[in-house]
Design goal:
39% strand; mainly beta; 7-stranded antiparallel sheet; 7 strands; 1 helix
Length: 116
């Protein structure tokens, strides 16, 4: 089919094509197993995985203004039954006032719901 319609500026050139229009949350558990799970906002990329059960992800980073913007970091994640897992979240592409900052994704899902 047709590639997803993603807003201008919402992708990083290093990523290539994305599989979905909106970002997802990658929920992971700390390696020590003692700290609470945490999440990273990601875009699922339209790349063929090199390992069965894995997906390619482009990472987003939260700015001081609360908006998530694409980084050049690409990662292949092996998904599990519990961790790591991809969670659908609600987010809106938000344009910034002024030219100094580019737009970003505003997360509208409550953070505690993502980690449930």
């Amino acid at each position: 089919g047709r590639p997803p319609a993603v807003p201008a500026g919402a992708l990083h050139p290093a990523w290539g094509a994305v599989a979905e229009e909106k970002p997802l949350a990658l929920v992971e558990r700390a390696l020590d197993g003692e700290r609470a799970p945490y999440f990273t906002l990601v875009h699922r990329l339209a790349r063929a995985p090199t390992r069965p059960g894995s997906v390619w992800l482009g990472l987003l980073k939260e700015g001081c203004d609360g908006l998530f913007r694409p980084t050049g970091v690409v990662r292949q994640a092996m998904l599990g039954m519990h961790f790591p897992r991809l969670v659908h979240v609600r987010s809106d592409w938000t344009l910034c006032n002024g030219r100094r900052r580019r737009g970003g994704w505003r997360l509208t899902t409550l953070r505690k719901r993502i980690l449930m």
